[in-house]
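Changelog note: in this version the structure field was regenerated for every chain. One regenerated record is shown below for reference.
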Amino acid sequence: MNVSRVSQPWAVAFLSLATSVLLSSCSTAPSTQESTTTPDQSLAALYGFYQATVGALGASGWDAPPSPATDLDVTPESCRLSNGDAGIRYTDWLYGPPTVDPGASARLVSKYWKSRGLTVAVTAPHTNDDEWDVRGADAHYNVMFTDNPRTASLSIVMPCITGDVDRMIDRVIAHREKEALEAGDTPSPTPEPQ
């Protein structure tokens, strides 16, 4: 069913909610990649996918990905592996300028993601909402592109991988403090856990 042709507001709302629930469930689903992907590989895939999507749009003015983007520079979040153990995953939400034709941009992103094998759903604006949403998912990515007259954005959630989130965050903090000292800055004290 083409959401842009649905004329009943309740039907649009239902389809939008159903699509959101279906695709958002992928972000918490265990991944078959969890035991073999390293943090640096996950980050490289995340920012590579981002740059490829922005490249497919042919747009400029988007946020630059962090550089460097290693496990010492980017903070992970916690998640659950398929066996129930705690793991880590990387996510980012990056912004760009609105496009001249958000509908055309949504169709372009949808086509590109489908070419990469993602399951894709496009939600056209309805009622008082002027935003186009494109959501995509597969075993490696859970992504969302939005575009409206004010801004465009791309959210990427990577699969859960093996790792200890507390240890990883401690490493990131220690690395940042070391870099600040080497640069001659005085780092803020890291608060002790309560």
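Spot check on this record: Residues 3-182 form a domain with the TBP-like fold (CATH 3.30.2030). The two ends are 52 Å apart (CA to CA).
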